[in-house]
Structure formats: structure tokens, C-alpha cells
Amino acid sequence: MNSYLSRRAAISVAVAGVLCLSVAACGDSDTESPSAAGPTTVATANAAAGGDSRTVSAADLCAFLDSNLPRWKSAGGQLAAMTEVTTEMFTFYDEKGQVVPRTELDEMTKAECPAARTEVLKTIGFTSFLEL
Hints:
The chain is 70% helix and 0% strand.
């Protein structure tokens, strides 16, 4: 069991490191980073400026979770599923020009697709998207 926990911790640290490097590499020193301003602020600012208003709606997020859940469940265990969910969630938001808003993930999925939320979190062994 200790080997399992050590492996899980190592994978979690590796995934977190890759995500941090990816987010840092996308930053622009001349603008405020999305993580500093918060996802809602960035989306609102972009829309107000007539710029890119690519936001993730609860419906989009729930559809993404629902469509990927069967594959994540068959990923080969919680570690594999957690890695896939983390990577794919980052990619899903990155394609829309946003940083993964973990607090917002919890709020949106609790309100709009609680069954999908519960199944995804159960599949990856988490109790909240804040653990991503």
C-alpha cells in the first residue's frame, strides 16, 4: 500500500509540475495573468473589450465530462484516470484561452451536472475539483 501512495504522490507532483510549466510558458509579462485576475474577470474583460469571449459554460463543461467519463473509467485505475482528467481538463480550458478555474469547476458541476461530477471525482479518487 505504501508503494501505491508513493506512486500516486509522485504522479500527482509530476502532473502538477507539467501543468505549472505549461501555464507559466503561456504567460505574457505585459499583461495580467488569467490566474491572477481570475477566470471570470478575464472572460468579462475580454467580452467588454470586444475581444475574444471564449468562455466555458456549465453546459460545455458538463458535456465534456459526460463524453469523456466512460474512457476515464476504463483508464486502468485512479492514477491513470487522474492523469487523463487533469491533462484533458487543462487542454479543454487552454483551447478556450483560460486557466482551469478549480473553484468554478466545483460550483458549476454541483449546480448543473452533479451526477457527472460525482462520477468523475469518484473515478479519480478525489472529493473535489480543488484537489486537481
